[in-house]
Specification:
Number of helices: 27
Helix content: 55-70%
Radius of gyration: 25 Å
Protein name: Tetratricopeptide-like helical domain superfamily
Keywords: Repeat
Family: Belongs to the PPR family. P subfamily.
Pfam families: PPR, PPR_2
Shape: globular
Strand content: under 5%
InterPro entries: PPR_rpt, TPR-like_helical_dom_sf
Structural class: mainly alpha
Length: about 500
DNA sequence: TTAGGGTTAG
């Protein structure tokens, strides 16, 4: 059955609205699960229309809304937070459809990323009122956002208050929160909390692995080993994952010799089986250290032992070949991967594209971008960012703007990095008009909920005042005013 | 989304 939304692939907003109305009115039966196309067409419509127009044009009662469709749309609108929240709120007034817990979680994540905590807590309250949450995942999201916004103390308070919101706390939520702190490099804080609460939550191997991995991320392998000693003393046995954490820790800290010794030790002790993650860690570790021969040897060894490489293994191997060997050799491995029947993912393409860009083969990088579409592997924001960045570095601003336009027309919205790279590039080239483009990009990014650095505002404002463009400078100042109260 | 391996470039 052809989706009723199939006609939405029209880039002209006016005709788009008409086709939506027509197709929605024709809709009488229950639609099949949301196709990606439906989600992107609806996202495109939501982006084009202001909320009022949306209420009038989008026939909410006629679309067969499902949590799956709503989640897909929220994902599409990830880099346009204000629109995503408007859409979510609009749909919340729907007469029959009610949001799922997962959709609430998405919306909460988006609001928290915009640092709009008032909305976050309002959503939590609504979630509770409708009896769909909040759940441990909701709190994982909220605490993670507080930590990454530089408010780890607030995150701890939120974690400790979970029960007041009717959300049960257990070892899982404890471990999740420890991991949130560790991943944001607040490892000491995580460790202190761990010491205080480990008895209450009956900390397990996973808790210790999380803390050890945190210290490894900080390249503090000795501290990680200390944590594991503590673990053994408390009567818990290390697992393969524990060993993989330490192995990775050595390589991350640049202790290649120690890593290799540890790997041999794991091999020697038969009781410790090794898996694809172990091998991927070592291939990547040697590669990053520039020891390509060793990386290749370990890669071959794993195949010889019958341990199947995963797509991640190939990605790691291809990446280090690009960086420390030769992009053509990396492409040979990419081709070999295809021959063996693997399906490359966006990361695979991204590392190859980056490799090509890095040696100035921009045309071939663009070919791979097209190839992604043919292979039904959607380019993501990182894909575009790499190409835009390298075009900018080469001074090919017009080409990078062309790629940027492709994003705007397609299914991938630019993120903070995209805007920062483009705006900086506008200052590298002393051409009249560039300042205006930079200013327009700046306003667009603010409208989409991104917060530019103060430096960026000042740079553009100074330029505009020097060229006597007072009116546009005022517009920029208004945009700056919309950046929130805790802006600095 | 209870833990371990793979994305930019600096």
């Amino acid at each position: 059955m052809l989706s009723p939304l199939h006609k939405l692939h029209i880039r002209n907003p006016t005709s788009l609205v008409c086709s939506v109305k027509l197709s929605f009115y024709n809709l009488t039966t229950i639609t099949p699960p949301a196709a990606d196309d439906d989600a992107s067409s609806l996202s495109f419509l939501i982006l084009k229309l202001d909320p009022q127009a949306l209420t009038h044009n989008l026939e909410f009662n006629s679309v067969y809304w499902t949590p799956d469709l709503v989640n897909k749309i929220l994902k599409h609108l990830w880099n346009h937070g204000p629109k995503a929240i408007q859409f979510f709120n609009l749909l919340e007034r729907h007469p029959t459809y009610t949001h799922s817990a997962a959709s609430f979680d998405h919306a909460i994540d988006i609001a928290a990323r915009l640092r709009n905590y008032k909305t976050v807590w309002a959503l939590v309250a609504r979630m509770r009122k409708r009896r769909v949450g909040p759940n441990p995942k909701t709190f994982a999201i909220i605490t993670e956002r507080y930590v990454s916004a530089g408010k780890p103390d607030k995150a701890v308070r939120v974690f400790l208050s979970m029960q007041e919101y009717g959300c049960q706390q257990d070892l899982n939520s404890f471990n999740t929160f420890l991991d949130v702190l560790c991943k944001s490099r607040r490892v000491e804080m995580a460790y202190n909390l761990f010491k205080v609460l480990k008895r209450r939550f009956r900390a397990d191997t996973i808790s210790y692995n999380i803390i050890a991995n945190g210290f490894c991320l900080l390249k503090r392998t000795p501290r990680a080993l200390e944590v594991l000693r503590e673990m053994v003393e408390s009567g818990l046995e290390p697992t393969l994952k524990t060993y993989n954490v330490i192995l990775n820790g050595y390589f991350k800290a640049g202790q290649v010799k120690e890593g290799w010794q540890f790997f041999l030790e794991m091999k020697r002790r038969r009781r410790c089986e090794m898996d694809v993650v172990t091998y991927t860690t070592v291939v990547h570790g040697f590669g990053v250290a520039g020891e390509i021969q060793k990386a290749r040897q370990v890669f071959d060894e794993m195949i010889g032992l019958g341990i199947l490489p995963s797509v991640a293994t190939y990605n790691a191997y291809i990446q280090v070949l690009c960086k420390k060997d030769n992009v053509e050799n990396a492409i040979l491995v990419f081709e070999e991967m295809l021959k063996k029947g693997y399906t490359p993912n966006a990361t695979t393409y991204n590392v190859v594209i980056r490799g090509l860009c890095h040696v100035g083969k921009m045309d071939r990088a663009m070919e791979y971008l097209d190839k992604m579409k043919d292979d039904e592997c959607d380019p993501n924001v990182q894909t575009y960012n790499v190409i835009i960045r390298y075009y900018c570095d080469e001074g090919e601003i017009d080409k990078s703007l062309k790629v940027f336009d492709r994003m705007g027309n397609g299914e991938c919205l630019p993120n903070l990095d995209t805007y920062n790279v483009l705006i900086s590039a506008m200052f590298g080239r002393k051409r009249s008009g560039d300042l205006m483009v930079a200013g327009k990009l700046l306003i667009e990014m603010v409208d989409r909920g991104f917060i530019p650095r103060k430096f960026t505002f000042n740079r553009i404002l100074n330029g505009l005042l020097l060229t006597g463009n007072q009116d546009f400078a005022k517009e920029i100042l208004t945009a700056q005013g919309r950046c929130g109260s805790d802006y600095c």
